[in-house]
Recover the amino acids of this structure.
């Protein structure tokens, strides 16, 4: 389950930020997860609940924002959504090779006190 590794990195990043700002408690972590990142949000939440024990984030909430996948069509110069792994422009039916969104895997912000 690679969600554990991802959560470990994210949490340690958040804790470092919290410590650097002199916080004594982390209330919330916000993450952005792309639909194509291969990460299961539930697995991430589960990993978080295990890993947060005995840290500044022991009482923290994890908010996950999922980003739908979208591709770029070079011919039409538009971005289009990719609902079912069909990388084809709905206007010109050109297959796209450029995934613009959906691979996000990042810590957006933390709330501390
Ligand atoms: Zn197109």
């Amino acid at each position: 389950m690679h969600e554990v590794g991802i959560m470990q990195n994210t949490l340690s990043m958040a804790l470092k930020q919290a410590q650097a700002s002199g916080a004594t408690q982390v209330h919330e972590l916000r993450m952005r997860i792309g639909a194509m990142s291969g990460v299961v949000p539930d697995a991430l939440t589960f990993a978080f609940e295990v890993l947060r024990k005995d840290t500044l984030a022991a009482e923290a909430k994890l908010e996950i924002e999922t980003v739908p996948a979208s591709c770029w069509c070079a011919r039409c110069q538009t971005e289009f959504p990719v609902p079912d792994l069909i990388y084809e422009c709905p206007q010109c039916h050109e297959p796209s090779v450029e995934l613009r969104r959906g691979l996000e895997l990042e810590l957006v912000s933390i709330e501390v006190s």
Remarks:
- DSSP finds two helices and six strands in the chain.
- The first helix runs from residue 3 to 20.
- The longest strand covers residues 26-34.
- The helical segments are 3-20, 41-51.
